[in-house]
Amino acid sequence: MLTEILTLDIFNFLLVFTRVGSAMMLFTGFSVSFVPIQSRLMFALAISFVMTPALSPFMPSLPASAAGLGLLIIGEVFIGVFFGFLTRIMTASLQTAGTFIAYFSGMANAFIQDPIAEQQSSVFSSFLSTLGLLMIFVTNTHYLMIRAIYDSYSLFPPGAPLPIGDFSNFLARQVADSFKIGLQLSSPLLVSGIAYYIGLGLISRLMPQLPVFFFGLPIQVTLQISILMASLATIMMVFISYFEKGLLSFLTP
Fold first, then answer.
1. What is the DSSP letter of 27?
2. Which domain holds residue 181?
3. Residue 57: burial class (beta carbons within 10 Å; 0-12, 13-18, 19+)
4. What does DSSP assign to residue 192?
5. For a disulfide at 185, which of 23, 97, 198, 204, Cβ 3.0-4.6 Å?
């Protein structure tokens, strides 16, 4: 092993770093704004250094022309960005679920800066995104992201033609699945919200003089938060299972 490290091919190392670094800049958890760029860079360099000796059989020879080298690097960047966006799309299911929950609970206008999405989001979206990121690292699911990059060299060898159409179809399907999972995660609050709105409508019809919005909103918020806390463990288990399944499809048996 020491001999392989000492005789490390710089070209192979830089080629591995191109794919790994592109993915690390977008991976969920590694790409958040409060992680310094220098830390991400050092982590990507360390992973590339460890992977390079094992990935040497997959590495092509140095292209004879600058154009060939440029195309090779662009292909590696494209594959790394693909895996990075894949993890972000799957994590976006929690954003979708939080947005639905905010609408169902009457707190759609309560915004907060989401450190994961790096934008203004509802309180529930920020809470679920932060909790989902914590679950990814606590359950060691983040190792699957690194392993997916390693196993990607057997699926997408460097220098081979890129299946652009397959990449596009897969990402489009993942976006649809992420939205579906987000709606499913918020389904307990959707059902309770619809039932509550129906009951509130019946009360307003039976008692027109009763100001339903004055006492209805506090009850609605309390009810939805209580249901969210009761179903939170199940929501996180479903999300982690969905996240793992999305990465396992790229792992070699």
1. S
2. 2-248
3. exposed
4. H
5. 97
pLDDT tens, residue by residue, 127-153: 888 888 889 888 888 888 888 888 888
Of the candidates 128, 102, 130, 136, the one whose C-alpha atom is nearest the C-alpha of residue 116 is: 130
Mean pLDDT along residues 40-55: 86
Q: Read off the amino acid at residue 73.
A: I
Residue 240, pLDDT score? 92
* Assigned domain for 253 exists: no
Instruction: Annotate 87-123 with b (16+ C-beta within 10 A) or e (fewer).
Output: bbbbbbbbbbbbbbbbbbbbbeeeeeebebbeeebbb
Q: Which of 204, 224, 222 is nearest to 213 (CA)?
A: 204
Instruction: Report how far residue 225's alpha carbon sits from residue 239's, in angstroms, rounded to the nearest whole number.
Output: 19
| Number of separate domains in the chain | 1
What are the angstrom distances between the C-alpha of 47 and each of 130, 167, 189, 244? Answer: 25, 24, 42, 21
Using CA atoms, how far apart are residues 24 and 14, in angstroms rounded to an integer?
Answer: 15
Task: Tell me how far apart the alpha carbons of residues 126 and 128 are, in angstroms, rounded to a whole number.
Answer: 6
pLDDT in the model for residue 27: 86
**Rounded distance between C-alpha atoms, residue 153 and residue 83, angstroms:** 12
On whether residue 131 sits in a domain, the answer given is: yes
pTM summary value: 0.82
Tokens 């090779």 belong to residue = 72
Residue 20's Cβ-count burial label (10 Å; 0-12, 13-18, 19+) is: buried
Rounded Cα gap, residues 28 and 148, in angstroms: 13
Q: What are phi and psi of 209, to 5 degrees?
A: -80, -10
Q: Residue 97 and residue 187: Cα distance in Å, rounded?
A: 9
